[in-house]
Specification:
Elements: H1 2-14, H2 18-30, H3 35-54, H4 60-85, E1 93-98, H5 106-117, E2 121-124, H6 131-141, E3 145-149, H7 157-168, E4 176-180, H8 186-192, E5 196-197, H9 201-216
Parallel strand pairs: 1-2, 1-3, 3-4, 4-5
Helix pairs in contact: 1-2, 1-3, 2-4, 3-4, 4-5, 5-9, 6-7
């Protein structure tokens, strides 16, 4: 029954059927199903959803429907995970936003969703964000890092400005800083002193996971 429920759960999430996914997740928890195994299978399938989106085999509404279903069942699973392990299931806290002068949000929102799915606590502070607001928010929530998106060459300088202000305020070592967006490159990230760059949502998840782990093992 455990395997059958997991298969059903995975399929409802992939298909973006939130109500059915929640119902199955609740039954799974009630039956004391193996949540670790279920999450392993779900993670594998969500990576596949992301790959299909990046290869244009599915479109944004389909990917977001799957992501919404996954987020819904994580709300059911996380309390049980915390109860069984005695620790917070969150892997880290990330402040993310689009830099000043830039109103683009889809790419940033996809990264936010994927980080949440993989267990991070995400503070999405929107678009056209003042440089100081990134740092203020990171301080308020005790963030591990700041993620900055820019979708226009004319606003990329905002990413540099955030990092420069972090240095001026003496908090550059307190938070890692990563950048992304269509015009952003690894060379730009290195030039402005960012801790990393990714051109895909899943790449961002891997980057954040590595940086959080490095911070917590120092």
């Amino acid at each position: 029954m455990n395997d059958e429920q997991i298969r059903t759960l995975v399929q409802t999430v992939v298909d973006g059927e939130t109500d059915a996914a929640v119902k199955t997740a609740e039954e799974f928890v009630h039956a004391n199903g193996d949540i670790d195994l279920a999450l392993k299978k779900l993670t594998e399938e969500m990576k596949g959803v992301g790959d299909r989106f990046e290869q244009l085999e599915i479109f944004l509404p389909e990917m977001m429907a799957s992501a919404d279903a996954m987020k819904a069942i994580m709300k059911i699973f996380l309390p049980k995970l915390k109860e069984s392990t005695g620790v917070d299931a969150s892997k880290g806290r990330i402040v993310i936003g689009t830099v000043a002068g830039d109103q683009h949000e889809i790419g940033k929102d996809i990264v936010s969703v994927m980080l949440e799915i993989f267990g991070f606590t995400v503070y999405n502070i929107g678009t056209d964000v003042d440089p100081l607001e990134f740092i203020k928010r990171a301080d308020e929530v005790g963030a591990d890092g700041i993620a900055m998106s820019s979708l226009m060459t004319t606003t990329m300088a905002g990413q540099r400005e955030v990092i420069e202000i972090m240095k001026e305020k003496g908090v550059r070592d307190k938070y890692f800083a990563i950048v992304g967006g269509a015009p952003v490159t690894p060379e730009w990230a290195e030039e402005i002193g960012a801790d990393g760059y990714s051109d895909t949502a899943f790449g961002a998840v891997k980057l954040v996971a590595r940086l959080v782990e490095e911070r917590r093992t120092k």
